[in-house]
Known about the structure:
The chain is mainly β.
Amino acid sequence: YTGLWEVRDWMQASTPDVMPRSLCPSSMPSSTGAASPSISPGLDNAVHIVALQTSTSTVGHWEIKNGTVTYIGVVPNVSTSTPAAIGLEGVVSGQTQMLGMAYRDKATGALKYTRWSGTSWSTPVNVLNVTTAAAPAMSSQVGLIAYVGANNVVSATAYSANSTGGFIAPQAMPAGSPAADGTKRLSIVAEPSNGAAYVGYRTTADEFVWALGSWSSCYPTTGSYWCASYPKLSTDWVGAALSYGSGQRVNLLVTRREKSTDATPSLENWVVDGSGLYPWGQNRMQLSGQPGYAQNSLDSWVAGESGTGLVIGKTDNCFANL
């Protein structure tokens, strides 16, 4: 018989548009000192990446298109000391769909938002006068913004030109939900066809919590977009991020030290299935910090810290057991 790994290697060698193993991952230009990237597909057949530039408290912007990674430049009028989040807005009647970026303002702690037209970023605006002690997250579809609000409760909103204040009313997780660890990154994914979402976050007890959001399934019983069910798993993970492509499984990419003596964590892929989490592959990549993760069609992209800069790769082409 022919082993599946041999078929995998033949497919990778025979498909010209697949990122080769030697570029798994590849370096991002002008990324020295950058950290905690966020990834999202755009409307221009490109994958966009933003990352905190720690020495200047600014945010850098990159794109990968036709296999080439390009540094676009610094996002103007943004000052932050925590990671920014990027995501493609949902389709709303009377509203031009754009790529959005949410971030925490360094001076005030205000949650702010700016939009990418394809050539430039808009002037940042306040998100409903929300303040947050932690970095926000955005879904790469539907443009949901997750953030840590009062008492470390996770909430969500989204840009909407038709709503009062330009954003939908904040939706806090119901009373009794586990408090978030503001030093760890949030992640959120959404399904465009029905607006359902999963949010994932860490607690100070090193637990990973995930919860379903749905107007039809949750709101009738909780009065909130979020359901009152919070599955959680005790972990030794360094970082964790959800990823999702429409109609596909919900992925969870984690960074974990296989041995306590390992200087750099390795990547592992898990699947979210209702109230369960299931590991299904280990990655060849080793990344520091808390990587960004996003699904673009059938491709899963990951960007993270390696050495003194950032690298990016397709995780679907790098997992050892594919």
